[in-house]
Amino acid sequence: MKKGVLLVNLGSPDSTNPKDVKKYLDEFLMDPRVIDVPFWLRSFIVRGIVLNTRPKKSAAAYQKIWWDEGSPLIVISERLQEKVQQKVTIPVGLAMRYGSMTLKKGMQELIDQGVEDMLVVPLYPQFAMATTETINVKVEELKEEFFPNLKTTSLPAFYHRKDYIEVLAKSMAEKLEGLEYDHLLFSYHGVPERHIRKSDVTNGHCKINEQCCVTDSPAHQFCYRHQCYETTRLVAEKLQLKDNTYSTSFQSRLGFDPWLQPYTDRTIERLGKTGIEKMVIVTPAFVSDCLETLEEIAMEGEEIFHESGGKEFTTIPCLNDRDDFARLLADYIEEWRIIDTDKAIA
């Protein structure tokens, strides 16, 4: 069977026009694994409230970070795809979970090249309902409806793999070299606390407290919170960071339900008010810079820090299309290509 690979990222609106942003937000926020409430309530929240006010604000935010070539996330993902393709011998496609670069188009393009066995690579180091799971579920739905003869495998979360940690730590070390700072903040995208409990395969381990994420459990395979804290721990160990010089937070909450804490914006504010003058922030839940990293963190985060008394605010870029990251993905692909078993990428 001819093999192929589909890299999958989040997606972006087609332009910064509010109409395009509204269309994109509707698809994104109406995903039941993003806002996991009954359809009628999700529709009321998204289409009755959010989409009446959010598109203009989001469009203005996209305008701040939009490149001449288009969406930064799309452009970066395309560059990464090209680099990975140069390093492997099988077709490498690209798709987005939301927006015009649909999963269906990406799958069809590979099938048109004769691909019968496809590795899906969600471009997220950690597993979450709103990222990896929604991609895998959509792929299965499309297979059943349009591509019944296509065999698929999904790359598991790679947050804890030594080779990934080495690449991430190296990218950070390059930015930190010669830089004086008081605190390093690891900021991950936020999810509602209920997502953590829903993903708990033990139906009881996840208490969302200080102990559950550091106590071994099968739940950790799908626990986004554990995987974020473990990413921080492994990188801190690799970089030999001193205690009390780094911490973890979560950004981008929506609505009034409890989301993972501590919140990034409040953490930045607290650090500034408690005398931290020089801080650095990294966003390891993303492999590609996007609205959340370029606008919410690099722009809004810096503004909050300065207003709170901080002086120097440094952001570390995502891995983007770094050569070593492209090489890492190529290695994962080769493992799967050579050894025809799920164990090759487990």
Short overview:
The protein is α/β, with parallel strands linked by helices.
What would you note in describing this structure?
This protein is of the alpha/beta class. The chain folds into 2 domains: 3-158 and 323-345, 3-Layer(aba) Sandwich (Rossmann fold); 162-316, Rossmann fold (3-Layer(aba) Sandwich). Helix content is 47%, strand content 13%. It has 11 helices and 8 strands. The strands form 2 sheets. Strands 2-1-3-4 form a 4-stranded parallel beta sheet, sandwiched between helices.
Overall average pLDDT: 95
CATH architecture name of the largest domain: 3-Layer(aba) Sandwich
Number of helices: 11
CATH topology of the largest domain: Rossmann fold
In whole angstroms, how far apart are the ends?
A: 21 Å
- Tell me, briefly, the overall form: globular
- How much of the polypeptide forms β-strand, as a percent range? 5-15%
Roughly how many Å is the radius of gyration? 20 Å
CATH class of the largest domain: Alpha Beta
The low-confidence runs, each spanning 5 or more residues with pLDDT under 50, are none
Order of helices and strands: EHHHEHEHEHEHHEHEHEH
Biggest sheet, spatial arrangement of strands: 2-1-3-4
- Major β-sheet profile: 4 strands, parallel
Query: What's the number of structural domains?
Result: 2
Q: Fraction of residues in helices?
A: 40-55%
Structural class: alpha/beta
Counting DSSP E segments of at least 2 residues, the number of strands comes to 8
